[in-house]
Amino acid sequence: MACPVNGARSKRVDTLTVKSLVRKLPVGMPNTQYYFCDASDCEVVYFALDAEAPRFRREDLLVRVGAKETADPIPICYCFGFTRQEIWDEIRSTGKSGVAERIAAEVEAGRCACEVKNPTGKCCLGEVARAAKYGLRLLHASTI
Ligand SMILES: [Zn+2]
Predict the structure, then answer these.
(1) How far is the CA of 58 from the centre of ligand 1 (A)?
(2) pTM passes above 0.85
(3) 94 alpha carbon – ligand 1 mean position (Å)
(4) Taking the CB of residue 94, how many other CB atoms lie within 10 A of it?
C-alpha cells in the first residue's frame, strides 16, 4: 500500500501495535487496517485506507521511530533497548556485533514483545543485521 503523503510502499501493521504506541488515541477511532510508512523523509508513521481514519505522525508516538530518525539515538531493538550507536560502539571496540545473537536468544526464550513495542510491529532482527552490516562497512572505511 502506498503512503498517501510520499507514496512509499508500506506494509500492514497490526492494530494492537498502533494502539500500543500512539500516545493519545482519538475517541471513536475506526477499527480498520493500518499501514506503516518507513520512509525517513515522511512524517507519517501510520495511515489507513479509510479516509476517515486518523493518520499518526512521528510526534504522535510514544517512541522514536528508528526508520524515521537520522540523528542518534536511533532505536533499533525496542524490546531490549539497543540503539544503532551501541551496535556500532561494539563493532568499533571488538570488530563485530553480538547484539543479534543476544536478541535471538531472548526471542527464543519468549521474552520479546515486538508487537507492542516496535513501531513496525515486527521483530527487529532484520534491522539489527542491517545496522551491524553498515557498522562493519564504516569500520572498514575507518569512519567510526
Ligand atoms: Zn509516508
Answers:
(1) 11
(2) yes
(3) 37
(4) 9
Q: Are strands 11-13 and 34-36 parallel, antiparallel or unpaired?
A: antiparallel
CA of 128 to the centre of ligand 1 (A): 22
Cβ contact 35:3 at 8 Å: yes
> Does the pLDDT of residue 18 top 80, yes or no?
yes
Beta strand 56-57 with 34-36 is unpaired
Residue 144 has pLDDT above 70, yes or no: no
Q: What are phi and psi of 33, to 5 degrees?
A: -75, 125
Q: What is the pLDDT of residue 116?
A: 97
CA distance 72 to 93: 19
> How far apart (Å, rounded) are the C-alpha atoms in residues 79 and 116?
9
Does residue 73 have a pLDDT over 90? yes
CA of 42 to the centre of ligand 1 (A): 5
Whether the per-residue pLDDT at 50 is higher than 90: the answer is no
